[in-house]
Design goal:
The protein is α+β, with helices and mostly antiparallel strands. It has two domains: 34 residues, no CATH class; 150 residues, Nucleoside Triphosphate Pyrophosphohydrolase (Alpha-Beta Complex), CATH 3.90.79. It contains four helices and ten strands. Keywords: Hydrolase.
């Protein structure tokens, strides 16, 4: 039996995040961006009120594409906010109205890698930085890969994408050594390694309802 104290008395049952029913008293748009906004909410909490600013994000998907030899597709891309060209798995915004997560993943894999996949599974769900952004990320595992036969025209930062296929274990080693620091890529690599070692028994239906994104604050995910 554990001797660790349990904060709040919530120590039993299945470990799981849960939605919070908090009454929003006021929500103001502080800055409107092309893709995401900055919003300020005033809400009831703990018998009083709190004010919090956050990035109101549309949500995103990412794809860990795994070929028949156990190699993962990573792409090098310039990211201005960090001042680096990082290695990451294909990913993109949920910015098409009415598009499902799986449909967005299929689109992004084609747009960034000119690939299609016959087998799709849900690998992982994330909140990337829940203290400051509403961004929900869904990571899919794509297998049985084939070329689309169409070279997608890429512009801006994506015009210099560099693809590379690496063994899953090599990607995990790069993450653990701190050479690959992209949070989504790190999560996907570690999740895929564990899932593979468990006979892929942890994978979920790719059409699983995306309640995390639906429950996110703000307007961008609506």
């Amino acid at each position: 039996m554990s001797n660790h104290p349990v904060a709040g008395g919530v120590g039993e049952g299945l470990l799981a995040d849960e939605p919070a029913a908090v009454r929003i008293l006021d929500s103001a748009l502080l800055a409107e961006g092309a893709v995401w906004d900055v919003r300020r909410d005033r809400f009831e909490f703990g018998g009083g009120e709190l004010v919090r600013d956050y990035l109101d994000h549309t949500g995103a998907v990412a794809i860990l594409a795994l070929d028949d030899s156990g190699k993962v597709l990573v792409i090098r891309q310039y990211r201005h906010a960090i001042g680096e060209r990082d290695w990451e798995i294909p990913a993109g915004l949920m910015d098409a109205p009415g598009e499902s997560g799986l449909a967005a993943a299929r689109r992004e894999l084609a747009e960034e890698a000119d690939l299609a996949a016959a087998r799709w599974d849900l690998l992982s769900d994330l909140f990337l930085s829940p203290g400051g952004t509403s961004e929900a990320m869904r990571i899919f595992l794509a297998r049985d890969l084939t070329p689309t036969g169409t070279a997608f025209e890429r512009t801006e930062e994506e015009a210099e994408l560099v693809p590379r296929w690496v063994p899953l274990e090599e990607l995990v080693d790069a993450v653990l050594a701190g050479r690959v620091k992209n949070a989504v890529t790190a999560n996907a690599a570690l999740a895929a390694l564990v899932a593979r070692d468990r006979g892929w028994a942890t994978l979920r239906d790719p059409e699983t309802p995306w309640t995390a994104r639906e429950n996110a604050r703000g307007e961008r995910s609506r």
